[in-house]
Amino acid sequence: MSRTQTGCPWRPANKVYNSKPIIELHEEIEDFFNYITPNPEEHSLRLSVVKEVTGIIKQLWPFAQVEVFGSFRTGLYLPTSDLDLIVVGDWLNMPLRSLQSVLERNGMKRVEVIGKAKVPIVKFTHARSEIKVDVSFNNKNGVQSAELIKSYKQQFPSMAKLVVILKQFLLQRGLNEVYTGGLSSYSLILMMVSFFQVHRRNDCGSPSANLGVLLMEFFELYGRQFNYDKVMISCRGGGNYAPKSIKHNWGRKRPSILAIEDPLDTTNDIGSGSYGMPSVKRAFEYAHITLSQATNPNAQALQTNSSSILGRIIQVSDTVIEYRKRIKQNFPLATGANGRSSDSGSECSSEASFRF
User: Fold this and answer.
1) Are residues 209 and 105 in the same domain?
2) Any idea where the PAP-associated domain is (predicted)?
3) pLDDT of residue 136 exceeding 80
4) Range of 109's domain?
5) pLDDT value for 234
6) Do 175 and 281 fall within a single domain?
7) With 70 as the cut, is the pLDDT of residue 2 above it?
8) How far apart are CA 228 and CA 22, in angstroms?
9) Which CATH number fits the domain that encloses residue 188?
């Protein structure tokens, strides 16, 4: 009988994993995805936060349109992921300070204007749920990119499970925010899409692929092989690599930064803000070395069924575990007379409207 390892709550207490380490890693990735996938209470709570914030915004601008984008719209969010909203309206200058004031009056916490970012935003924390929210104005590309990501999810069935692993990996190392030099979710997903597009395995993106092998090969590509100085990624037309030199000034000031052509705007390098890319590269290289050692058949005798292979590179903190428990306890789903949830948006897989 196996035991759940500290920091690895995705490992069922009584599960016996495959004796082959590379298959065990695949099984653990499956279990992590099932564990970290938002439960109905978490999904429903986020919808309620969107509706509450929309109501506050419409106190100021009754005719504004509020749309959800980012990871909540694509379904690729972690329990602590930010909630991304766009306010669409007719303004000559973005009313960042006006929004800050009305949010503070309505009890939102840690309201902050990030006015000098490439896409200016208002950041805050929803007091009751502790969900962090980012609001931008008239950023229509955000919705388009979310819909593009959803199409990539359909094209590459393995993508979602690998992306949430990588998001957790970057999160716990503080490498997941562009404004601190990290890698955005959009950049990460396009790196994964490019990996699938240029990969030589026939089963690369299929549901039957070994996720452990794919994860290790992703880490190997971007941690040890990819030429960040000279090559850019393009996912258009089935995907390809191209020299940075074909784009005027791309990478000239910081050649070590990853260049990624935005499929929705070929003049936009979405990797340009990730000045901490050398740290991301080192983290990927570390992960590849660590997993290669853990899955080496010669080291198989050292493996025990209570020792997590995936847990060597990612952990889920007690703080997150307790936070998820609090949501389940404090925000139960409303139920009807038949005992079933009356919230049509409570199922994480359901198709909810993201326009308000």
Assistant:
1) no
2) 210-268
3) yes
4) 40-139
5) 95
6) yes
7) no
8) 29
9) 1.10.1410.10
Domain for residue 311, yes or no?
A: no
User: Same structural domain for residues 184 and 198?
Assistant: yes
The overall average pLDDT reported for the chain is: 88
Which pLDDT score is estimated for 201?
65
pLDDT in tens, 12-39: 988 999 999 999 999 999 999 999 999 9
> Please, which pLDDT band fits residue 283 given cuts at 50, 70 and 90?
very high
**Nearest 5°: CA angle at 126, between 123 and 127?**
130
Shared domain check, 84 and 30? no
Residue 108's domain is classified under what CATH number?
Answer: 3.30.460.10
- Residue 355 has a pLDDT of 67
Q: Which of 251, 279, 299 is the last residue of a domain?
A: 299
Average pLDDT of the residues in 149-173: 96
Number of domains in the chain: 2
Compute the distance between CA of residue 91 and CA of residue 105 in angstroms, rounded to an integer: 22
Q: CA quadruple 225, 185, 154, 346: dihedral positive or negative?
A: positive
Contact of 95 with 137, CB cutoff 8 Å:
yes
- Cα 285 to Cα 279: distance, rounded to the nearest angstrom: 10
Query: Which pLDDT score is estimated for 164?
Result: 98
Ranking 131-135, 266-270, 288-292 by mean pLDDT, the lowest is: 266-270
Report the candidate in 3, 1, 72, 10 with the shortest Cα–Cα distance to residue 324: 10
Residue 45 and residue 163 share a domain: no
Residue 324 lies in a domain: no
How remote is the C-alpha of 170 from its chain's centroid? Answer: 9
Here the tokens at position 95 are 């009313």
Q: What is the mean pLDDT of residues 249-274?
A: 84
Say if 354 falls within a structural domain: no
In a domain, 167, yes or no: yes
* Distance set, CA 241 to CA 38, 63, 169, 238 (Å): 35, 44, 25, 11
